[in-house]
Amino acid sequence: MLPIRRRPRLSVVVVAYKMPGQLHNTVRSLSARHQHGVEADDYEIIVVENRSDEPADADALRALTPNLRHVVRDEDGGSPAAAVNHGARLARGRYLAIMVDGARMVTPGCVRGIIDAAATTRRPVVSVPGYHLGDQLHQEAVLSGYSAEQEQRMLADLRWWEDGYRLFDRAVLSASCRDGYLRPIAESNCIALNRRHYFRLGGFDEAFVTSGGGFVNLDFYRRSVDDRGSRLLVLGGEGTFHQFHGGATTGAPGVDRDVLLAEMVAEYERIRGCIHAPPQRSPEIFGEVGEHAQPFWEHSRRRMQVGAES
Q1: Is the pLDDT of residue 85 over 60?
Q2: Which residues touch 280 (CB under 8 Å, ≥6 apart)?
């Protein structure tokens, strides 16, 4: 007789395409060995990889943590929306965390923080602030010759696997929350909510078809936060850290970023009938802010004060 596995409390859906090395780091950061205060049975990791000529090593990913499922699917377009929805349909947890970019490493308290924050309210929207590894946003750093190889050497020097909070020491806030996470931000690359709430919202809108999904992640974040009865909880002491991989808007070779962004803006306006703006709801900060994250907490407080005075 097979052992009875209890239902996980949280399902983390990670979408990936042509990023084998970065995805390995992401899964390692999410692994039961790396995450604090949880066991493997508390959550599951569902990696949905769109097929490419640079696939991840599925066996190596599974060796990192026992609570991982790796699914490969064919995707004709360049949007991750369908892959996100596919992963959500496979999820068994009460809560669902969406990581639309598989190149995002997370700090060791993310899983525990999401579970605890979500349990405090009926309709939670739990948001983890975003960062870029290195000293500049990747779309700026690439102009100075920044590369994935350089970044991986930096990560090795940090020995992040010994203390995942060291990632804060070599990072900058993402453009979506450059003024800090206490003011309205545009998106989260790790957003969690009740699984039923996700499907009631319609999930990720597959009408977004521009490269990388355009504003699909921003759109879902806004719809989630603005939904009546939602409570926005931000894990100020945790983070998701973008690894350089030549993404659609962060350094893809041969891509005119200004042209692509204009296409994304136009697509959003066609679908929603308005210009995109971040949700204006003020967040509640949940959890502790440790030593490594403290400078970004102080930056967020200063920027919030400036906004209140202007």
Answers
A1: yes
A2: 184
The structure tokens 């929350």 sit at: 177
The values of phi and psi at residue 264, to 5°, are: -65, -45
Give whole-number Cα distances, 113 to 174, 222, 227, 239, 294, in Å: 20, 21, 22, 11, 17
Q: Tell me: the pLDDT tens digits for 132-160? A: 999 999 988 888 888 999 999 999 999 99
HEC string of 65-89 equals CCCEEEEEECCCCCCCHHHHHHHHH
The per-residue pLDDT for 78 is 82
Q: What's the confidence (pLDDT) of residue 245?
A: 83
Q: Residue 2 in contact with residue 83, Cβ under 8 Å? A: no
227-231 own/partner pairs: CB under 8 Å, 24+ apart: 227/123, 227/125, 227/197, 227/201, 229/122, 229/123, 230/123, 230/124, 230/125, 230/193, 230/197, 230/281, 231/121, 231/123, 231/124, 231/125, 231/284
The SS3 assignment for 123 reads: coil
pLDDT value for 144: 85
Question: CA angle, 206 as apex, 204 and 211 as ends, to 5°?
Answer: 105
Contact 87, 154 (CB under 8 A): no
Strands 95-99 and 231-234: unpaired
- Label residue 252 by pLDDT band (50, 70, 90): low
Separation CA 125–CA 156 (nearest Å): 33
